[in-house]
Structures are given as structure tokens and as C-alpha cells.
Amino acid sequence: MPAEEHPMIGVLLNGRTLRGIRRGSTQHEALQLYEHAAARLGCRICYFRLRDISLRRRQVKAIIPDGPVGRYVTRMIPIPSVIHNRAIHLTRRAQARLGRLHHLRYYIYNRHTRYSKWFIHQLLSKHPDIVPHLPETRQATPTAIHQMMERYDTLIIKPSNGSIGRGIMKLFKDGGRWHLQYRTAGMERTLRTRRGKRSKRRIRTRRWAVISFRSKLPAALKRLIRQRRFLVQQHIPLACYMERPFDLRVSVQKGDSGSWQVTGIVGKAAPAKLFLTNVAQGGTVYTLEHLLAANPSLHPERVRAEVERLALLIADHLDRHLPNLADLGLDIGITQLGFPMFIECNCRDLRYSFLEGGLWEEWAAVYYQPISYGQRIWLDRQVTSGTAN
Can you give the residue ranges of every domain in the chain? Predict the structure, then answer.
């Protein structure tokens, strides 16, 4: 691997985001904040996809900021020795390619950005101080669901691999019957075009539906858990804001110190009469202080301290088991008594909740920290290789 005279941090993106750079539409990635961070730190930055890398030539076709914000050039350059992974790679071929880069001593932090919820739960279950903060969780089979129904009146059934709240169901007992609350798939509708023609197409008309039963699981649920891996989980009675349950997105990252730190916390409240807090499922973003003001029994400083303590404990524990971890978005719930409970771990935090909540400093910071960490790694590697000035 050739020596680099100046820090160059590569940001590995998925294809859709990379193609959007030229159009000025990069989905939830605020690339200009990476660029502001690089300018402050005195390093350079570039963007590319995994497919743009030539391992044989040790080069990559990268998009590089050039001058004013929003101006870029595309060039073949040596593969940056330090890379921040912001893409999801699920195929064996992609995983093998990442492994090859690692073998060639390229440092990819957050090398893997998708782990199953069951795998993460098993890892966290090994730490005795984290276990009290974990809802009881099992792999969803008809037997496991029935056993959990005997223990709890409300359960959550969720895909083991999934994001932004898709596919999550609520199973609850009321009036001597069980009820499965789920979101329906898109419906095919006949639409009239501007020219008066009719056409059929699938559009997103998702709505919530409920199946009621006494004890025998609905055939639709059994079919789902046969086709895909699901988890069945104890429902956490979350603290509420205006009768809407809320949880917290906690950004935990490594920065220039190389140590874990909490960069920001933002709250997400579920829509009225629903249970999913995800913004993509209709949740609303609020600051932690705003949410806690509606819960006089919860002390804001104490809650924040307990949430940060748990977040750092989880990050440190996962860091001991997962390769090159440096950037996490943790979903942590608060019970009505103020006790923090782990909900989910995201190894590719979308970060936009901070923007939605008007937390401008935190929003900028969650982009700054990964670049400052990348520069720290680059400098450490230069010293180790003996090429530092």
C-alpha cells in the first residue's frame, strides 16, 4: 500500500447515494457536513462505491470535492488507506471484497453495517451489567410465541434483519382475546392520469390492521415466521409524551481521542394510538428535554446520565466483538420509572433525526466525529509505519 503524504479519508457509499452527488440529492447523507469536517481538520475526503475499487491496481474511481460546496471532480486515485463505510453490503461477493481490502491493510471502520438483531442480542446477553436492560427476546417460532404469551400480555414481533420499523407487529391481549396489530402492504389502485387514461400501479397505501384470535396463532403470522426470521420480544412499557410512547436515538461514536463518546441524543414519539416511534413510520422528533418536561417524575439530568452510561457500556462491549466499530446509533427506551432499556443497534445510523429535531450542533457533530476518528487512525498508522514527518 503506497504511503500518503496528506490525510485522505474515503467514504464508502451505496450506488444510489453516490449517483445523487451530481444531482445534489444524496438521500439522508449530508455530505457537505463531511466536507466541512474535513476542512476544519485539514484533511481531504472522497466518495466511492465498492465496485469502483480496483484491487489489482490499488486504485479507485472517486468523487472528490473541488472548490465551492457542491462542486466535484471524478478521478482515479490510490485507494485511501482509511475508509469510513456508510454502505450496506449483503452479498458474499461484497463481503469477500471488504475482507480482501482488510487483508491488504486498508482500515475500514464500521466494516460491517448490518448485523441481525438476534446476533446483537446474543452478544449483549453476555455482559451481566447489560442484561437487566434487555427485554426478554427469543427467535419467533409458534412454540416460542405461545410460551411468551403465557408470560406477557403484550409482545413485539419483529424481523431479525430489518430497519426503520418495517415489518414490526404488536401482539396484545385484551378482553380475553389476543390481537395482532400489523401494517398492511401497498395496495394496487386504478388511477386516472392527467390525460384521462386509467392505469394500474402499486402505490404506498399502507394502513394498520388487526387480527383477533383466542389462542391459535393466525395462519398469516405462522406463514411470515416460516418465510423469514423474526424475533418475539417482551414489550417495554415506555414513558409517554401526550399519551404517545417515545424512545431515544443515541449517537455513540469514536472521535479524535479514539474513545467512545455520546455525540447526541434525540427523542422520537410514536403517532397517536400507535406503537412505532420510527420517523419513517410516522414518528415525530423532539428533544429529550421537551419529552421529559411532560414527565415530571423523571429527572432530566439523571435520565440523560443513565442513558449515556448504558450507551457507552453497550458500545464498548460490542467493540470487543465486532471489527473496527466506530459509529453507532442506539435506540434506547425509557420505562415509566425512568429505567433505560435497549431496543436496537444501528451500525449505519441515518442521523437525520437530529436535523428533524432542530439539533443543529449535534447534527454537524455526528458527521464531524467519524472524520476526526479517521484522521486519528491515519496519523497513528503513519507513525506506526515510520512515514510521519
Answer: 8-113, 125-131+237-347, 137-234
Fold for 125-131+237-347, please state it: D-amino Acid Aminotransferase; Chain A, domain 1 (3.30.470)
pLDDT at 12 over 50: yes
Q: Report the 3 state secondary structure along the chain.
A: CCCCCCCEEEEECCHHHHHHHHHCCCCCCCHHHHHHHHHHHCCEEEEECHHHEECCCCEEEEEEECCCCCCEEEEEEECCCEEEECCCCCCHHHHHHHHHHHHCCCEEECCCCCCCHHHHHHHHCCCCCCHHHCCCEEECCHHHHHHHHHHCCEEEEEECCCCCCCCCEEEEEECCEEEEEEECCCEEEEEECCCCCEEEEEECCCCEEEEEECCCCCHHHHHHHHHCCEEEEECCCECEECCEEEEEEEEEEECCCCCEEEEEEEEEECCCCCCCCCHHHCCEEECHHHHHHCCCCCCHHHHHHHHHHHHHHHHHHHHCCCCCCCEEEEEEEEECCCCEEEEEEECCCCCHHHHHCCCHHHHHHHHHHHHHHHHHHHHHHHHHHCCCC
pLDDT at 338: 94
**What CATH number matches the domain at 8-113, 2.60.40.10, 3.40.1280.10, 3.40.50.20, 3.30.497.10?**
3.40.50.20
pLDDT value at position 204? 46
pLDDT digits (tens, 9 = 90+) for 223-249: 999 999 999 999 999 999 999 999 999
Q: Which residue has the higher pLDDT, 201 or 310?
A: 310
Predicted local confidence at residue 82, as pLDDT? 98
